[in-house]
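Hi Prof. W.,

I finally got the L-threonylcarbamoyladenylate synthase prediction working! I wasn't sure whether to trim anything, so I left the full sequence exactly as given:
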Amino acid sequence: MSRRYDCADPEQREAGLADALIAIPKYELVVFPTDTVYGVGVDAFIPPAVTALLDAKGRGRDKPPPVLVGTVRAATALVENLGPYGQDLIDAFWPGPLTLICRVNRSLSWDLGDAKGTVALRMPLHPLALELLKQTGPLAVSSANRSGAPAATTAAEAEEQLGDSVGVYLDGGPTAGNVPSTILDLTTAVPRLLRRGVISVEKIRGVVGYVATDSDSASDD
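And this is what came out:
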């Protein structure tokens, strides 16, 4: 049965984080708020847990989940390099609603799905999410909703869609909105926009100059 914690209460917040730290190594899913929408996460290095995440979402291996980190150092350990633009983008927008797709560090032993040698990374600007991520290390995290359904902006909405497939719900109150993170691909010669989100293309161009765009850019977080 799922456990839900009201993290506005300091005692429940502490208990919820402690439960999440126990649940994650047991392959359980944990729902928590981010600076965009609620996310559902598992240990990125436990393939059966990632499979459970994809099953709960109702999606296949062709849509591997992004990885959220609590520190920039954790992010850089997961990639071959940040390329010519990655560090500047991190300095400008992290923690925040910008997801960066980079070439994955080939020495890593994990299986996020059919990621084609890449990983989508983000460091969210939310105190509860950051506290959790700093203790767990990188988590594979997708939006806390069934694939194709509206993103959850409250723990209750996430629970309504995901139910008992999740072990722990950390209720941090409503998120700021339902707009997802902006996704930028750094594996190409020039940064390429894959999804429009909270951070505008204009702001990104202010940091890196040219950004390739596609009017049909869209993706599920």
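Strands lie at 3-6, 30-33, 38-43, 67-68, 98-103, 118-122, 139-143, 168-171, 182-185, 192-195. Does that look reasonable to you?

Thanks,
D.
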